[in-house]
Amino acid sequence: MHSPVKGWILAQTSSALLDLQRITSVTLDESSLYMTFLSVGFVVGSFMYGVVCNHVDKYIVQFLALTLAAIVLAAIPWCRIHVAMVTAHAIVGFCNGIIDSVVNAEMLAVWGNGGRSFMQAMYFSDSIGGVISPIVTAQFLSFRKLYQHNMPDHSTANDGNNATLITMPTTDLYIEHTNTLNKSGTFLFNVTERDLHMPISFYHSSQLYIAYIISACVCIFVAMAFLLMFFTFNRDIYSDRAVTEMTSSKNISKYRKIIILINMGLMACIYTAIEESFSGFLPAFCISQLNWSMSNASYVLSVFYSCIGLGRLVGVFWASYLNPKNILGVLCLLISVTLTIILWCGLHHSDIGIWLSVAFIGFFFAVILPTVFTWTEEDFFPVTGHISSYLNIAANCGATINPVVIGTLMENCSPMWFTYIFLIESFVLLMTYVIGILLSRHNRANQNENAYQEMK
To answer: Is pTM, for the whole model, over 0.85?
Structure first.
């Protein structure tokens, strides 16, 4: 049940990023720290759970983490200080890290090698949250309308194109784009619906707090469900699991385990870096490079999550008959092709191309991360609480670094760096898949050889 919450929170942060930027009056690369510390908190939370996973009740941990997340989410729209906003996102990420580590390990503990469809179903629920959240959040984003009585010492004129020309002292404005500077020391600039860099005090007061209160209520609802599970569920499901862990560990040398963990962790890292940063900066890319409105940028993000959800829904059914790892290479290749198309559409301002490409890449992303967990479980060793925490930490290392890099490059160089970085990373993702297949075949060959030696 947690997974819709995770998707909801991530999609909401992406949709509201520019409004959060205005609340704290910072630049885009500074506001990217919200996504970064969401991932930093996730890493810390995953690590903490890996340390204590054998000493705590999992249902109570889930209840406490969701309750804390709800409290902090309700407070986020009121964090006008940049440090407070960063800290709040780090705490929410910390809670998400704990929750995600628990459910990934528990899902495979219950279902083991037969958990492909169930793992896909869990990640499908993640996408449901990602689809609904941007639609809900879009209703409460700030309007692009100026209150002229809030503008001190200004003068206005009309340029004949339904745009108002306003002059104001430079000390009263925070402007990132170059505008016409008059001799009197004032900026002359056009106020249009799509201007991204107007100061927050110019706009209607944002109703973003309503969207975040809704998110807090969702977290509380799920937290109550875990509290109910604490009192009613049978916890004696791990005896067979312990035997499986011992027998599987004996068949793989420590050196080979390290190589496998590094590669599977890198695959999770690159994938998460692409997917979460793609959704995190997609609205900003559409607004700054393609001059879209904030609402349309939020809706295209919803399309992205809808197609991820559709892909995972399809995966729920076909994962029982076809192992997802067998087509993972094709999906990685298609991701690279689609990112190339998005690059072209960005350069040529093709709106329809962006809509279609975002839909396709969302579908291609769908099964990769759950497959990393089931692939590890089936071909290498059981995904225990420690392994689940490690894969979550590895996955979010990429999501921690990427927003800083992309936000800085988009702010200081060009919004097109949004596409350049992802295209490079997609080739690395394909490489990790190829290495994973080689490791899998080598491991299976060793298992067959060991079985043959035991028969003799």
So the answer is: no
